[in-house]
Structure formats: structure tokens, C-alpha cells
Amino acid sequence: MERMELPRVFAIWHPDDSIRMASSSGGAFTLFAEDVIRRGGVVFGAAWDSEMRVVIKHVETEAGLSELRESKYVAATPGNEYVRAREYLEGGREVFYCGTPCQIAGLKSFLRGKVYENLFTADFICHGAPDRRVWGKYTKWLERQYGGKIEEVHFRDKRWGTECNLLLVVRFQNVAKPVVIASRENTYYYGFIHNFFLRPCCLRCGFNKVPRVADVSFADFRGLGEHDSFDLERDKVKGFTGVIVNTNQGRRLIARVNHESVVERRFEELANSQPLLRESPRPHEKAAEFWRDFDSMDWPELAQRYLRPSYKYLAYIFARRTLGPRLFLRLGIVYKKLTGKRSASWRI
Predict the structure, then answer these.
(1) CA distance 289 to 283
(2) Cα end-to-end distance, the chain, whole Å
(3) Measuring CA to CA, which residue among 139, 126, 140 is closest to residue 199?
(4) How far apart are alpha carbons 21 and 309 in whole angstroms?
(5) In sequence order, which ranges of the chain are alpha helices (DSSP H)?
(6) pLDDT tens digits for 192-243?
(7) What does DSSP assign to residue 37?
(8) How far apart are CA 92 and CA 144, in angstroms?
């Protein structure tokens, strides 16, 4: 069987530290999106609506990009944005459409395979999208707990550094300060990363592997510098985006952005720490029981029964916070070298 050529991979970061710190990884999405908007284009991505639901929307200004930044661990509703994207494409404007791999596949299917030179697409290495009903139950409980309607949500806040950014920050009406919910207390996040309530389609995803459907694919660049030296390793606390370039359109995007903040790396360096490039997530062994009790239990009961972090997980989170991002990373590298526990080499 002929071996497939590996895609090119880049470590990318936004040169503006304020934007970089407001992004889940390194701000590559914003870097590409700003370029498209400056050329008169339109950018599509996931945003919160007034009811704290995730929807796909489009923006035409750089200021509007703040709504589309950051991870949102909820299934997004596309609305009529495929239609609007086609209208802009037919009108000759550039379109940068960012979504999950299946959403990008859906867009291309909607366009009936027509090739647009003014269309650029981006997806990300996707863990899967939680069922919207779970987010609804969790947020209703939060609003009862804090006595106010949620008006702002931020997953993966970076105030403790990129390797400790497993924080949910929520702002409520009538509450003076935003509420910071750390990983050890965040039962929603725990349920998400342990695959209790992903949608069934996410457990048999056909779009998250190589070759990929989008022009570029984003990821946290975990392991950057672990195997090959990296001059800017001290900046890991700010975050770096790993960008997989999948098509000629992706190469065009890379060629247009600030090359001082774009460094090519080996594909394996990114892929070896991203198992979801190989296979879909697997449901937790108690996921079926969780759903059996979902309608009859309120959130505290569900969390107590199914979403209590293990001692091992709590120790891991405690170490990340106590040691700080740099020391935690370095000790992790030393541990892997001493034990021989490296990620399995990438094969395609």
C-alpha cells in the first residue's frame, strides 16, 4: 500500500500578546481571520447567543472576532450560515469558515462540491461536541447556585498559564465578580473530557482523521519542543497553535500571515500527542447509566454519582497548578524520559 504524504505542520502564535492570551491556544485563528477581514472578507465561527447557546455566526470587523475566539464545549447550531456563506462567495468576497470537521464537511456538501477560490476553511482536532441538553441542565443549576442569569462564559481561561487553563469563568447578572470554576470543581468539564455525554455521531466520527476535509486544522501544540529543540520554549505559558496544512488553499493562508510568528515543525511532533487524529473518542463505561438517570436527576445528583474526579485526576490538576506551567512541563518531560513513556510514533 502506497504511503500517504504527511501534511505540513506549523507552530503559530499571534504577535499581540493580549489576543494570544484571550485565545485557547496561540491565536492562529485570529491571525488568519484578521487577514481575511482586511481583504474585505467575512469570517464564520462559533459564538454565544443571548441565551448562552452556541451558534454559528459571521462577522465582518476585527472587533467582532472576539465573539468567535476561545473553545466552546457545546454543540453549535449552524442556523442559516451555510446559505449566507454561499451568498458572500457568489458575491466575490473572501469567506473564512471555521467549525468542527463535520461542519466543514457539511458546508462543502451544501456547496455541492463547487470549488471557490475565495473560500478558506478551518477545523480543529475535535474531542467531540457535548449534547446541548447537558449544557442546559448544568447552566440552569449554576444560575440557581449564584442567583443570577449567566451573561458571559469562558472555557479554558489562561490566568494560570496555558498548561493550567482548565478553568471555566462565568459572569452572572447581579454578581459583582466573575466566578472562576477550577477543574477539580468543574463537573461539566470532567464529564466532557471523560466522554460521558458526547453526541453519538462524535463517537463514530468519520472526519477527524488524516486526510482532513478543511484547508487547515488547528490544535493545541502539546509536546512542542519535547523531541526537537524550540527557541521560544519559554513562551509556552502563552500558548502555541499547531496548524496542519491540508490543501493548497491552506498553503495560501499560511503564506499570507506574519512569518515572524510562523515556524514549521515536524508533523509527528504534533500528531504524536493528538490521539484523536487516529481514532474517535470512546464513551465512558458508565455513559449509558448517566443517560438513564439524566432526566430524573438534577445536576448535583448526576455529578455526585457519575462526575466525581478521581484522586489521580485531582493530583494531576494540583500538580499543574502548584508547580506552575514551566516546571510542570519540564518534570513531565523528565518523567517520560526516565520511564520511556513516550507517545506512540505516528503511522499513516
Answers:
(1) 11
(2) 11
(3) 126
(4) 27
(5) 17-21, 28-38, 81-90, 101-110, 132-146, 187-193, 248-256, 267-271, 287-294, 299-306, 311-323, 325-339
(6) 999 999 999 999 998 988 889 999 999 999 878 877 888 887 787 788 999 9
(7) H
(8) 48
Residues 244, 270 contacting (CB under 8 angstroms): yes
Helices and strands in the chain: count of H runs, count of E runs: 12, 11
Q: Are strands 179-181 and 168-172 parallel, antiparallel or unpaired?
A: antiparallel
C-alpha to C-alpha distance for 158 and 22, rounded to whole angstroms: 8
Nearest to 113 by CA among 244, 44, 213: 213
Residues 77-121 have pLDDT tens digits of 989 999 999 999 999 999 999 999 999 999 999 999 899 999 999
pTM above 0.85, yes or no: yes
Grid cell locating 178? 466573575
18 burial class (0-12, 13-18, 19+ CB within 10 angstroms)?
A: exposed
Whole-angstrom CA distances from 62 to 47, 68, 204, 260 are 15, 11, 36, 21
